[in-house]
Amino acid sequence: MLERYAQEISEYLSAMMGRSIIITDINGIIIGAPAKERLGDFHPSSVPVVQYKKMSFDDAEAAKKLGVWYPGSTVPLFFQGRVIGTAAIAGEPELVLQFTTLVKNQIESLLREKVYAHSVQTPQHKINELVRDIAAFDPMKDDASLIPMRAERLGINMDIPRGVISIAFSNFRGLDLAKNPVRLSYQSKGDPLSDEMDYSMTNNMVIETLREVFADPQNILASVSRDRFVILWTLLPSETEDISLGIERAKELCAEAAEKLREGSIETIIGIGHPAQNLYELPFAYKNAMEIVTIAEKLSLGPGIYGFDEMLLQHILLSITPSYPIRYMEKKLNLLYSENDAQGLIDTFRVYCESLFSKQKAAEKLHLHRNTLAYRLSKIEERLNISTENFEEVLALYMIIIIRELGKQG
After folding, report:
1. Which residue has the higher pLDDT, 179 or 399?
2. For residue 93, which of 57, 292, 294, 338 is within the disulfide window of CB 3.0 to 4.6 Å?
3. Rg of the chain over CA atoms, in angstroms?
4. Does residue 228 contact residue 167 with C-beta atoms inside 8 Å?
């Protein structure tokens, strides 16, 4: 890939900078140079630069020992998170030092422009734009004929009932850099030259994986952000009559896709939204699928597949307008959160509620002795002046806990 553009970039930057700038591959072989007779020569300084991913400087004496024509500096070039070659700038190190980072960034920028310039008009890019417009479609204001016309040019029939699936990377941040191909740009304290990360490879891999699983050509697969993907998948006739059938099939396909992505070191949170019968319903189904993933993230749920039918309570709570009863219960809850053991008590109370108020089941889930569970519940009763035998008080507290957790991230 670098070989295709190295000579053009070398000639352009050398003329612009007024200095000889050569480009090598990862083996130190010159593949771009203003003096074309140097093409194919070995550049010894590039080998340790590639190996250690560090910039090097060679004065005249060091250059002579290495058998290099001129003194100068050599920097590693990064693309898609890995070193693909080096750039060497001729001149005394104290003179070219000020140009080194500039040249590195310029070469990498030019390379990205040349590699990705054509991708703006790719079919996948057009599909991504189509899905974004579907998500923003307002049946009350927008022309309903434009989206079907654009979709038809891409071979997509918008008259087919579809469900919406949202996929987010749950390990988008913080995994080991050597193993995780999906990560945010980061600031390296040791080597600023290794900060360059590119997401194109991962993006394409995810789309290809999803297309392999959701193979129906009428399924619409799109990348809507760096760590989010959407599938508008077609429903079978039987699934439009019985939604549960469609959800079950969607979960099976999502499980297969999640496993394949996991093999590529990508963990996912997948939300299955409610089905849409037509274009008018799709924006709401899209929002629903996105909300499911957001709720799962806010509740710190692990990687998994979550259907809209499993998140009904959370959706209802999100739609509640703040009022005096809610603020009253929040003040009560704040009394509990002021104590050091608050989170443990809250977790115990949640599991107790989600175990259908069975102390035996809750104790088993929490791996606690039943007496320990009872002690924790009694502490909640004492501090909040409620009774765990009073269903309404218990339910109100449970809902406020969920509302609070949903609101932590805004």
Report:
1. 399
2. 57
3. 29
4. yes
For residue range 157-194, what is the model confidence (pLDDT) as tens digits? 999 999 999 999 876 443 333 344 443 333 333 333 23
Residue type, 329: M
The Cα angle at residue 262 between residues 258 and 268, in degrees rounded to 5: 55
Phi, psi of 276 (to 5 degrees): -125, 135
| 78/192 Cα distance (integer angstroms) | 11
- Indicate the helix (H) or strand (E) that contains 228: strand 228-234
Residue 31's alpha-carbon distances to 38, 69, 283, 359, in angstroms, are 8, 16, 50, 72
Phi/psi of residue 263, nearest 5 degrees: -65, -25
CA separation for the pair 237, 235 (Å, rounded): 7
Question: What are the helix and strand counts (H, E) for the chain?
Answer: 16, 10
The tokens 């009694």 sit on which residue?
378
d(CA 117, CA 119): 6
Phi, psi of 325 (to 5 degrees): -60, -35
Question: For the sheet containing 56-58, what is the strand order?
Answer: 30-32, 21-24, 82-90, 72-79, 56-58
Q: What percentage of the chain exceeds 90 in pLDDT?
A: 28
The answer to whether the CB of 175 falls within 8 A of the CB of 183 is yes
Q: How far apart are CA 176 and CA 190, in angstroms?
A: 16
Sign of CA dihedral 108, 113, 114, 120: positive
